[in-house]
## 1
Amino acid sequence: MRPTMFWSALTTLVATTLVSASSVHRRHCHNIGKCDFHPSKSPKCWGDHSLSTNWYDEIPDTGVTREYWFEIQNGTAAVDGVERIVLTVNGSVPGPTIIADWGDTVIVHVHNALENNGTSIHWHGLRQNGTTQHDGVASVTQCPIAPKDSITYTFRAEQYGHSWYHSHFALQAWNGVFGGILINGPCSAPYDEDKGILFLNDWFHNTTDALWSTASAGAPPVAQNGLINGTNIYGDGGKRFETAFTAGKRHRIRLVNGAIDTHFKFMIDNHKMKVIAADLVPIQPYVTDVLSIGIGQRYDIIVEADQGGGDFWLRAYPDMACSAENEMVNDIRGIVRYDASSQQNPTTTAYAYTEDCLDEPMSKLVPYVSLDVEHPATKKDFDLGFAVNTHGMFKWTLDGTDLLSDWGVPTLQQSLIDLSVFKTSSNVVELNEKEAWVYFVIENGLAALGLTHPIHLHGHDFFVLAQEANANYTSATPLQLKNPPRRDVAMLPANGFLVIGFVTDNPGVWLMHCHIGWHASQGFGLQVVEREAEIPNLCDTSSLDSTCAKWQRYVAAKGILQEDSGI
């Protein structure tokens, strides 16, 4: 048996074993300590901890390790009935869901079985406190994993809720290298059934590599479809996503927007949604008909099956105020059935909504654990703009610089070699004061073409202090300092501004970038080098150097050229 075949077989066997046996999903009873968790009777309890525990300061010590084996593979798939080249995790799109309990240690072994691609895996929204080397960003925290090479990521599940992992090498994530992360913990409202993670994606019938020339010329490619949990119809092919509700029961759904260039408006006809978490932050529950979910964002919702019976459309509309054109703009739909045996198409009507690409209102996203913001030790202002380089390639800039980091010499490795010098093109912000408040003001004026952007910061939940469309930030702009929303992705509104705050409590190298895939590749990002003097003690330099040496040998042998920003 060839090594690749052996790894693939081992991956399937072990991953299945871990999920079904040693990674038992203790969703319905976490009964250690003082307060037993039960989803419908005591959802705020979690052993010796609870929903009121400040997880930035205290997490459970479970002593449990969850271990997974991932193989990144070439493949083909017809997720909507149209076959195309895909890249997969263990042969599937989406890949396997990582399941752990709050406080567990997670180990993921990633093997690159691709024919001609590097790779890396980022654990989106997980703070990686003390584990910056395991954040999984090519050119920032590691070199790409060369074909036939492997890497092991290890981190603690310090937060709870759900998120996703995805490749952070070129535009690979949107060729299929992504999957869910589900971390069991308390929640802010009772429910009866957990329906798990529900991905919302845009979908193209060509690879992102083939579309890059169009995107890099400044023309966003047109999407052919949108997927709900990896499926939809197209023409006469494909199939719709379906799920069953039990009448009278409350159903928990964990939404992820995994698109490359689509902001979704999500709804289930005739049903209201109780929103209980934004990204990995539990919030005071609120009720809505339509949920506005930006790229990279996650929302945790509870839907009560209060209609008695019937079939209902579940809808994900691209918000065309900022999204790529989509051939199926009005037909990205799944079906909720009260009787799983029904084969009828629903006849229900959608809720009205406004196309604005705005976040859910700040006033609704009230964190359950209340934390206030202090005066900043450092405040940085960034103006978003664009440029066209000498090769005719479109670039996004922050204060005039489009990010360019080197696959072969990642910023983390540079920080270990030389603790003072970074290239201007690396767009590095150095923050060396310990436990200090930092404010970032990102301004999106007319020079930035009037588009909306989802801003994602690695290594931190940030506080959303101000956010407004069609407005200018001034020194008189009011900031919300008392328990503002916390999350890791927030929308930078069109012709407006976004103000975020965070504490320098996590030494490492952290990327901040637009989560529209094309824009990140076009240089829309910066790097935070946080408490640089403390970083060497957190790193395994031999592992970092070994991955880079193998990547550099592969590049030399194959003549690989870096065509994008590196992230």
Note: The chain has five helices and 34 strands.
## 2
Amino acid sequence: MYDDFKTLIAAQLSELSGASAEIITPAIDLPKATTFGDLAVAVPRLRLKGNPVQLAQSLAEQFKTDDSVTGVVATGPYLNFRINRTAFTQKVLKAVHSAGEKYGWTNEGAGKRVIVEFSSPNIAKPFHAGHLRSTIIGNFIYKLHKANGWDAISMNYLGDWGKQYGLLAIGFNRFGSEEKLVADPITHLYEVYVAINAAADKDPTIHDEARAYFKKMEDGDEGALALWQRFRDLSIAKYKQTYARLGIHFDVYSGESQVGEGMARAMQMLEDGGLLTQDKGAKVLDLEKYKLEKAVVQKSDGTTLYLTRDIGAAIERYEKYNFDKIIYVVSSQQDLHLKQLFKTIELLGLPYADRFQHINYGLVKGMSTRKGTVVFLDDMLMESKDNMHSVMRENDAKYKQVADPDHVADVLGMTAIAVQDMSAKRIKDYTFEWSRILNFEGDTGPYLQYAHARLCSLERNCGPVNLEADVSLLVEESAREIVTLVSRYPDTLATAMQTLEPCTVVQYMLKLSHAVSAAWETMIVRDQPKELADARLLMYSSARIVIGNALSLLGMEPVQRM
């Protein structure tokens, strides 16, 4: 958005200083505050000989302003430039309305493919807060890559294999109910899993039975596999309902059980590479010299472990999808496992070893309802939705205007949970607080949705938007702030693409919403002279588009009434 102005500034500074435009252009930044200017240059970055403060003063005195770059002032070692706000505002607001839902998108990833693996719950267990973090962070990363032109594939790699499924099968034979299984498969299987674990604490031989049962699964026993397949199919059907409610789609449902001959090939490659040692009959990968401990890849009874299957999966995925990058969105508790996986792929000499990336996140603490019981995702969503519904009903007049209040309450509840999750850097642990979820004020999800809905209401009542409005009438400082923030949305997405931090977009959206709120009482549209009303409505409409785009990118449906 600032490129034309940066080019003009760089050209003249190059003439005055002798520094090349290639050095100057990247040094022209957007200041955190626009008190001194719209663009700034830190003179030390120009690599000129002399005192930076004196050089800044000299360059400011020599710089010739014009209709595009209207002012320059030196502040210490910085050069601060003012640009033609009318031309800039016109350019920004037209760009927003021209691109619409794709404002801020690029084609930088064109021709490149990325797999984003996220969510990945264990079948037969209810969705909990940890899976929610992986799900919403992963969905953001997937959508962000698509917005940057990548061919992005969303993959759900289910935890659907291992001794615990032998344990579950034995538990179902003892405690299971066919009727309860059909009615609510995941809840019932979880009850069975808890019951059999409690029984195994008293009778350790149950674990031996579970290992034997899983060995039958690995050996292809039809009866053992049939029960496991039923558990898997019922679990996926239930998960798909939850994902649909969250507005999340997976291009591929995979799982540990789906890894085929890639696993055998991985074992053979490890053997051929001399990377394995024997330890009491088990095959071990010794990564201690890389400070990554030892990793068992095959137990003494011949059964495989997570690492073996993940290596095999990585080989098969590259051969099938030929990806340029693969991102694993997994909690920080798995840091060691992912480091072991990536190091093993490197040691195997695979040519795509540098294409793997782990995006981690911290833990959620304090997850309980007001009744004190552990919260699973469905419980969280229902409680949040019910509370949003109660708040909405407090304004009867507005409530009656909402076409589908039940759906809007659901969206608001999910937005509240997601924004609380994504407000800080993902590696940070955070404490789940119902008080923040139920609050429409402050830096919360409902506040962002309210900002969007209020702007939608303004357009309904004062529209249509005039794209040819005279933006020179937007002289207030609050208008400058809104337009500047709107112009920075593409840069915000570029930063998010570098860090893959959802909080970058959340914090940006909060700033823009606060700026709109600050302007709301003084920059009125209704009952103003037409030219002024048109200019203000165009500005507010642009802010509405950007807030809606940001909400969508974060995986939330922007509401129009609430």
Note: The two ends are 33 Å apart (CA to CA).
## 3
Amino acid sequence: MTVSTLPEKDTNASSTLGCDAPIKKEYLLPVGKETNSSGTPETTAAAAQGKREGGQNQNRGAANRVRKGKKADKLCVRLSVGEECPHGDTCPFSHDVDGYLAQKEPDLGPVCHLHALFGYCRYGLRCRYAGGHKAQPGTEVEPQLINAFGNDIQIRLRKKQISFARTAEIEEMFKTGAVPDYSEKNNSEEDEDEDAGDKRRRLTRGRIDYRGKTYLAPLTTVGNLPFRRICKDYGVDITCSEMAIASSLLQGQASEWALVKRHPSETIFGVQLAGNKADVIGRAAELVSAECEVDFIDLNMGCPIDMAFNNGGGSALLANPKKIERIVRTMRHVVDCDLTVKFRTGVKSTENVAHTLVPEFARWGASVGTLHGRSRQQRYTKAADWEYIGQCHAEAPQSMALFGGGDVMSWEDYWAHMDRAVCDGVMVGRGALIKPWIFQEIKERRVWDISASERLDMLRKFANYGMEHWGTDSQGISNVRRYLLEWQSFLHRYIPAGLLEVLPQKMNQRPPAYYGRSDLETLLASDKVNDWIKISEMILGPAPDGFVFVPKHKSNSYQG
């Protein structure tokens, strides 16, 4: 790790919004010389998608979809690891080992990460690095993921074996008007002896002081478990799952329950829920609290995307305080952990409502609130309004911590807000996607001029974490590659500190075309999808023939 000789610092952050980043002249590319590193015709994320910049690429599914193939073409899991299949001839998967090996794609590399680390690979012959299973095995013990349920939850939900007694109880309270006020006892530990014998029903409410801790924002798609592990390596304190849809959890959808998985390294961890009906969110919160090991459950009232907003969820809730009250009170009644809320300034840029909600959140039972300093209408454009966050913080009672978020991309940004006492903590989202080592910089209060080789090592570590999480068979490697590329759609926006005339880099500064200090640094800065795929091949081996990738998120945050 190297610490840069710091360039001049920018003392007027607002003047940099929507302008080019101040890169040293010797690193700037001549105008018009914006070919990619391989000399092939450029394919930017925008060009691949063919639409305006901003928001999400909503029609990318067909391009990115992984072809799973037929079960009969896949080798039986039991046979792949040398075990006898209990289903015999009725097994829907192939038992023709020789035939499978004859048509299997070549190995992607000589070393299997799982075998090298843990001494075995649970994918056996299906592993895309199966040749590496002959090497000296590793001896580390594979950590057991927390909140990994298999199909147990789905079966119990289908058989209606799960009770939602607390949700039913609070629904009756609403009918009689006997709903409790939590303003004075938000952090109490009432009912601690209830279900004391169930470790997953343990009461965690009020036992964590969130103030002053670094917080990685819940991030859809890119905030997956391997990425959160990377951020934990760099020192983040609080992590949260990707947004989980309450109704999908209650339907037992496996893809939704996969989002609540927790790595043992995640010391303070929560699950974020989204929805628009109090009884549905209440049952989902009661279920997660009862079955999962979580420190808090978060209510999403900040998501600006059309799919959530048009269904009345996410930031759309901000237009309906009565509905918010019912949802928050319901969640507080049914969970044994802390309840947190994430929200925006309001729906419209001209009508801030957060300051009216903050004191009510505490009265309704929230332990922590996180305010993104933009409206739904702004999405991620313009500057986050930290002055308004400070005004809302002044309205927050002592029983509820208020975090702020928006445009934090450096330790200077973080400590400027904390030292001004405009919030009790700072949530970091896009800043962590662009430079996850920001958490280390925050703790050390210094700039890390991270080298290109160190950044590539970070991506290798992500790929290894991804293989542990998604697997080393063809399906698993496809997932690792896809999520690595999704992350690279943010990572390429980082400008090395040593190339800047003025520090720190600001979120809304456009990076002009520039050379890096090495070929690798130049490659990592490319905004071309072809180059992102090349980076993935440096780590995971060749991409499949005809491979196409369109990122989920388009960048609209450079608009001033």
Note: The two ends are 33 Å apart (CA to CA).
